[in-house]
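Hi, here's the filled form for the chain we discussed.

Project: internal
Contact: R.S.
Residues: 418
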Amino acid sequence: MVSATLAAVTVLAPAAGAQDVPRAAAQKQNCTDRTAPPPPVDTSEVPKPGQKAPEALPVPATPIGGDRMGECGLVLPRGADDPPAVINSASWVLQDLDTGEILAAKDPHARQRPASLIKVLLALVAVNELDPARVITASPEDASQECTCVGLVAGGQYTVEQLLQGLLMHSGNDAAHALATTLGGVPATLEKMNSAAAKIGAMDTRAATPSGLDGPGMSSSAYDLSLIFHYAMKQPTFAKTVGTKQVQFPGWGDKPAFPVYNDNKLLSIYDGFLGGKTGFTDDARHTYLGAAQRQGKRLAVVTLRGEQKPMRVTDQAGKLLDYGFELAAKKPQPVGQLTYREGGLQTGGSPQAGPDVKSDPAKTAATMSEEDPFGTTGWIITLVVAVIIIAGFILGHRRKRAALLAEQTDVLPRVRDY
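And the returned structure, exactly as it came back:
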């Protein structure tokens, strides 16, 4: 379980001379989708009878991740070449996966729909709360979800590890529902997912469904998903699963076991690819995240609201990674910095909770990754301090008693050191 105190978002100042002020100001004035994603194209976000659509998430007064993260359009280092023209996503972020530095971006805080990329957030909650060896029996409701599905059978028994494989490798909505049921039901799971996003610092993000199917209030951004992915890739179970090409998935009843292949095409064709996630809905369009490593450098991309032309979105992401590695070799001034909330991740609460009070600018994604974001360290420190205090009290009492005895017997006291 996780525990921490919701605290402030660290906001870094823009790099000196990174961009001319008039151009930056003009871009901010022309930004769209700043509060909510574009209007839906279908009825998937219409609230159920008797319910109201949730209000848009508040927009922080200062852009999270640095002043340039408030720009829209291309956000590039001074003198950098434009990215390949084939990249048609409305928003994207290119990050250094180790330092959290943002090398380049396009409209990073525009509110978009994540589609199945929100499964990364569900996976984080599941990895934290559930034993991977725990066996879960799939319900008829799990097995009858709107697909994409990995192929759960009602009454079939699957481990949490297998459900995570179906969730992340094949984007199984049935696996998402089974995990959500195990985590306390869909409403409770959404609360945990949204709280986790808030505790990380992903303030553009609200999950409306565990699977990423569109629903009232669904929202995220390229910046937020880059932050969530940065965090997720530090969790060994998650990183291993998204980097797995194939597993044998259990059958049940009359259904035999069958292979599940990772649907991320770059895993097989891109040199040094580490793993990622794909997504699509009619409202979200094509979404994507992925990471790769070359010559000791690890980069990651997130692209939102893209189209499969003039090439597949996965191939566009590969082109963006190529661009990133070329850009990183020139050691440009970053245009932003992924920044966690102090205290890291916890469950419970709501995305709107807590004041936005500025904190130490040194608390960036790189430094926060060295801490325990689930709060375990705080409890350990408290316990150690308590033990030291108690030991000191006992030691003082025993020294005083020994001294008194020595005075009475004229014998030098001998006291054990604690």
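Let me know if anything looks off before we file it.
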